[in-house]
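Can't attach files on this board, so I'm pasting raw text. These are the components:
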Amino acid sequence: MAEEQNQQLEVAIQHLSDLLHSGQDETFKDSFEALHEYEMGQAYAGLPDHLRSVAWRLLDIELLAMAFDNLDSNDDETIALLLEMPPQKAVQVLRSMYADNEVDLLQQLSSRQLATYLSLMPKKEAEGVRNLIDYEEQTAGSLMSTEYMAVEEELLVGDVMQLVKRHANEAESISYVYVLDNQARLVGVISLRDLLTHPDKLRVSEITNPRVISVKAGDDQEDVAQIVADYNFVSIPVTDDDEHLLGVITVDDILDVIGEEAVEDYSGLAAVNVSQVDDSFWQSAIKRIPWLVALLILGMSTATLINHFDGLVQKASILAVFISLITGTAGNAGTQALALAVRRIAIGNTKTPVKTFLSEMLTGVVVGVVTGLAVFLIVTFWKHNMELGLAVGLAMMIAIMVANLAGYLIPVAMDRLGLDPAVASGPFITTLSDLTSVLIYFSVAQLFISHFIGK
Amino acid sequence: MAEEQNQQLEVAIQHLSDLLHSGQDETFKDSFEALHEYEMGQAYAGLPDHLRSVAWRLLDIELLAMAFDNLDSNDDETIALLLEMPPQKAVQVLRSMYADNEVDLLQQLSSRQLATYLSLMPKKEAEGVRNLIDYEEQTAGSLMSTEYMAVEEELLVGDVMQLVKRHANEAESISYVYVLDNQARLVGVISLRDLLTHPDKLRVSEITNPRVISVKAGDDQEDVAQIVADYNFVSIPVTDDDEHLLGVITVDDILDVIGEEAVEDYSGLAAVNVSQVDDSFWQSAIKRIPWLVALLILGMSTATLINHFDGLVQKASILAVFISLITGTAGNAGTQALALAVRRIAIGNTKTPVKTFLSEMLTGVVVGVVTGLAVFLIVTFWKHNMELGLAVGLAMMIAIMVANLAGYLIPVAMDRLGLDPAVASGPFITTLSDLTSVLIYFSVAQLFISHFIGK
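---
Top answer:
Structure tokens for the assembled complex are below.
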């Protein structure tokens, strides 16, 4: 199905190119206007460069704004498309876009370009845009749009419906009308559903829900996404600390947030940016190599450590047999603890930090004891050597407990320090755990060696 | 902010409990009704058992249905709440719920319970429900709701507005009205926005968009989610293969899908179910151990292989030093390739399979050569032994290429076989790659050993 849509889009782009190429400007405009808004964006971006420079001359500002509103406003390819136009034209398009997308694009400009663009806007509008630009990334403020509908409580249902009808084409969502007091503070919300099902003569205060759920402009976008998903909202209002309404966030932006966050966490766990699946092999290699080489250098410390125990290996080469088993299993246990810790941070923990810590500690102990016991049994029976089994099993047990604890503590500590815990990638944890596992393994083996050697 | 909401909810539940406890039934009903729908669900589920059995006797069916509509309909705790009521009451609640949630809950019943419940519904309704139950999980059909608005094209805008007003409280989304031909096939869509901004006397055919984007009931839910996210829809219609309208999927269900899929992929990469962050330490350990032990047994094959090369290690104990470096680095490369492949499958590939394969192969070659070269240099200078450096570097290069290819091919093959590629977990790939890496390492070392031994 998704592929079918892609194919249709390819055909549409080809058709539009042909029309432009053969000079059928009016038919091009009509065909473009008949597209879905998302397709307008894709089609505009998909036109060959020389035809796109014709397209922006032909198309109405409103249509261009729709196209740009439906491209990824955080993508540097989108801003590149905008920069193809002269600044005057680009600013016209930006001003017709939804404020959240406009600001996303402006944020990617150099400060010099930004100054130029803002100088081409009416002063008051430029100020408003500057305020929005100042919101930190990944906060509610950076997601919100300022095209919303708000009224005071004294109106009648019919009045508000008139207002909705007038603003229906500008507002990003028409599902809710917000109610403000005389100091512009958010005090309630009216749903379009209720407006439609109540008589025109009724005072809106009768259908206003005073328990309006809102977020603060500085709130983390993940928290906002969680509330919208829980409450099944299609939009949520954003206020400042004094409850003044600043804007609304619509569910389409929430979909993007959830997608982004998931991709970030996933990328962290794999030490590769999975959002760039379309890279050429060369770009792809260039991006993977630094991680691998950094981890390789960290891994060299493990090699150095094993080298330090060379005397031990020379005495009992059997020790080499279990190196990868212990590092591998401890690494797996560490990855499990890491993934759960990152996830717990992402969705908000319901237990206290102390309880979570104790619970994770105990889990590590149980997992370590059971797995250690399994290894003890396997090695004892395989090699008919209980002392060796004991050494490997004990080392495995301690290595798992340590890896488990590290997998839990590192992301939690990073979160406390205000860093993104997803950066503590799975491979980083496993490479680090290799080092501690080897240290534990050879230390334990050293204690036991007189017992199992020569057997 | 999310925490603030949770605290408010706790307070609300306590308040409701107190009211029930002290017999203030009417105040309880009013307070419950004043909650947000999501909070109704949470509050109902959060009441102590003995008070909940009073609550369902007091509350209107409509309010109970709202509460259940806002609980996770795929959770077995939700169905348990429903089973607390006598079947007659439970069926009344189910019938007042949105069809998608109703069906999710019914699917969790035993076939005997299901038969009882269906026998308590009007025959035609029971048939409709049975049809919905038959849609496979994770398809569009399993997500859709049958409460939508549809009209024929001959009507006027005013007529359709009347219809919207009448059905506003039943339909799950009122943003779109669908247009059907005389054989109930989907031929267009009208947005509420357009209805509001056009005169009542206009024929709806004037504002009907004939290019309606729909999905088929059998389509994969991930594909549906992608379309909704791309097009910024708040709902999307579902049809059968002959374009007959069957239902609609609303954006709140899409939010859940995106969350679920991300959690599944993430869980796969870590070999632990990260959706269960609230497990007790005991449950948590019980769930992690089977994976670890299974991987441990797979890891034993690597140990056996190293054991097989014991003679080699005895001759050159230096070989033990680089085992974890090679297995670790190859494992990391394999995990990167795996994560990208799983992600590419999830979001739909834009290149042909052959191109992707070639691109991934070439990436593996570049990554392998660069990393192998780095290792060659490090080992040569560290050990002042170029032959050893050559052996380790060459082994590293081949091991990375193989791990990279396996990380790419395994999920792709699983997807072709109709299995979920996320099950090919990161730890599984790394453990498997340990085996091939060790085999490659010792085989290469064997070729070179006469050159570097005794140096």
